[in-house]
Amino acid sequence: MLSRYNMLVLAIFCLFIGTTRGAEEKSKMKVGDKTIERTVQLRTHSIFAPYIDQDLQNRWWDFGADAYINTNKHIRLTRDRPSQMGYLWSRLPLTTTNFVTGESNNLYGDGFAIWLTKERAQPGPVFGSKDSFTGLGLFLDTYANSRHPYAFPRITGMIGDGNTQYDFGKDGDKQGIGACSLNFRRTNVATKIKITYIKDSVLDVKLQYKAWDDWTDCFRADGVSLPTAPFLGMSAMTGDVSDNHDIISVSTHSAIVSHGDLPFTESAKKRSSKKSTGSWTWFFLKMLLFAGVGFGGYYGYQEYRRRSRYSGMGNFGAGRSSGFAGFGGAGGVYSGGKRL
Rounded CA gap, 232 and 211, in Å? Predict the structure, then answer.
């Protein structure tokens, strides 16, 4: 018989487009119609046992409230006691444009949240973090506060705008961009959640809870836009129903997405429009320049013919009579259009 104990293993894979350095993993992954070519682990957003250094700190992560660390086992966000809350937050923001998150857990109690938000390390009432957040909150809710036509546990994704408050009475119903009901408690394997985000394109959530490497779709939302460079965080809270909420590890990866799979964003459209406009402007400038050169050449040729004609007349006059010598001399005062 399983005890009421939450083991939470979190694996974060952050995907971005660009050149990366480090140990590359070249296994390809398909996310909708996008292909992830390779991934590289980011130390700044990964954490494993023993979690802290000899100074009892971690240079990349902060934990607080009721959270504490067992260096041999886990980071415990909450103990099996009522009215507890705890958090784990990255100190640095994710400067990636696309990412995938995954975690494994056996949850009871009030639940757990994964955050990708502008704010960080601010305790509050929403699964242990602040309300009116800006960014993504993914809630693993194990306890229903009201009746619903769907079952619990429930996984819900919500995009906060910094002003909208979470609806506690209705468990965030009607506020989510997607949700699913899956019984990820008391499973034979460690439950894992994988969140994939591609900038301004798609947010995809999958669950592993039936068997190893057997991923079940939870939801996918298109056209999702998250804040630039969000912080990565995890938080948990207990109410009347309490449980341990433990994090075993966090592993963050950057990734390179196939160029042909990249979404054509508004900025790209603007750049393309500017490039097209610039090309036409340069074309017309070249045409005007060509026309100017042609006109100048034609005018110069006509002027040359006219001068040659005058010069010929002066020489003819000088040969016939000295009376025309002055005119002939006048015919030679121009050379190349310049007065000597």
Answer: 27
